[in-house]
Amino acid sequence: MSRNALPAAVCAVAVASIYAAQPALAGIGADLDVPPADLGWLVAAGQLGYLAGLALLVPLGDLKDRRRLIAGHLVLTAAGTIVAAAATELWVLLAGLAVAGLFAVVVQTTVAYAAASAPPAERGRTLGAVTSGVVLGILGARVAAGALAAAWGWRSVYVVLAVLLVTLAGLVLKTLPPDPRPGGSSYRETLASLGGLVREWLFVSRGLVAFFLFASFGTLWSGLALPLAAAPWHLTEAQIGLFGLAGLVGAAGAARAGRWADAGFARAVTVGALALLAVSWAMIGQASWSLGFVVAGVVVLDFAVQAVHVSNQHLLTTAHPDASSSVIGGYMLFYSLGSALGATATTAAFAVAGWAGSSVLGAGFALCALAAGLTGRARPAARCRCVPGRPGRSRRSARRTTGGRAG
Questions:
Q1: Helix-, strand-, coil-residue percentages of the chain, each rounded to 5
Q2: CA pair distance 407, 402, nearest whole angstrom
Q3: Can you list the positions of beta strands (E) in 4-62?
């Protein structure tokens, strides 16, 4: 755990820059005169920036020293949060959030760094430990952001994030070991290898699961503040942020998923957790009359989401140990698209049909994820065919160029 503490902290703070707006949506909307139906774009801006970063920046981790990439991207994420903190117009805020999201893909570079440095028998445990930092950032940010917004306004959230990001950049350079990468591939070849992944059934099935999984997740956390701030509860931003603690309880249990994955149960965990995800919406949908049901549903939902997420990453990094940055970046493209869809769709559904409409939407996404997970079991998993140092290049092509000797 001590070895993974700093990577987990990097993941926590970086991902918080994307989700910190969620408990303060009402306050931001009032300050910048944003209609409720459009508030989802505040979260979607960061997700769309993240999407671009996954495609363009994460593959650099297979070419460059990941330690230096992590430090540089943390500083640039801080620059985006400073722009957001200073924004007086909606478009400036959206631009700052998009820049922060673009470089917040340092999370995936950090996950790939941790997975590559872990012994194969402990890769699942390492992913579980580092992913716990992602969970802490996504959910804990809601608690901290809600408290900060209530005390000093929503802008203080982004000022604090900037300070933490710059501090972590210094710690990364000082304490993490260098990560020299093997030569032989160009940036263009590495990007092209992402296209080759779409021909692998393992990658496609895990990607579809992630898309619907995080659409369901985004439906909850980008929309939950709206019914809680309305009648009959009228909760404050700080009180709404406390619901992140319920999510942390559920997600903390999902750290065990890494050990289950090491034991060979990643696929079984995925299907079981997706079934729990669908069930959780029956409880979350009761927000109009029972906060107790909502808390229970949040615990179950976040356990399910993180258990599936860890299991998916374990399967993919095991299949592609020499191209972990590229495969995780490609997988997270689905994550980002799903999160953006959930964030924008939930506020629109709430404007039309209230929280009941958002809950039906979230449950529908969960059932689609379950269907994708079950379909993914219908075909055998693709085996790794990557040549070390040449992501996306198959052993068959290597034999053609080396006289029949695979690397």
A1: 80, 0, 20
A2: 9
A3: none
Tokens 């917040």 belong to which residue?
104
pLDDT of residue 365: 97
Q: Rounded to the nearest 5°, which phi and psi values hold at 381?
A: -70, 140
The pLDDT value given to residue 166 = 96
Q: Tally helices (H) and strands (E) across the chain.
A: 19, 2
154 in helix, strand or coil? coil
Confidence of residue 397 (pLDDT cuts 50, 70, 90): very low
Give the separation between CA 55 and CA 95, rounded to whole angstroms: 19
Count of beta carbons in the 10 Å neighbourhood of residue 186: 10
Which one, of 98, 72, 68, 70, lies nearest residue 83 by Cα? 98
Greater model confidence, 121 or 376:
121
CB 15 within 8 A of CB 214: no
- Identify the pLDDT of residue 404: 39
- CA-CA distance, 179 to 198, in Å (whole number)? 28
Element (H, E) at 238: helix 237-241
Residue (of 331, 146, 151, 162) closest to 221 by Cα position = 146
Torsion 222-225-230-231 (CA) sign: positive
Query: Is the pTM of the predicted complex or chain greater than 0.70?
Result: yes
Mean pLDDT score of the chain: 82
CA distance 154 to 20: 9
215 vs 206: CA distance, rounded Å:
14
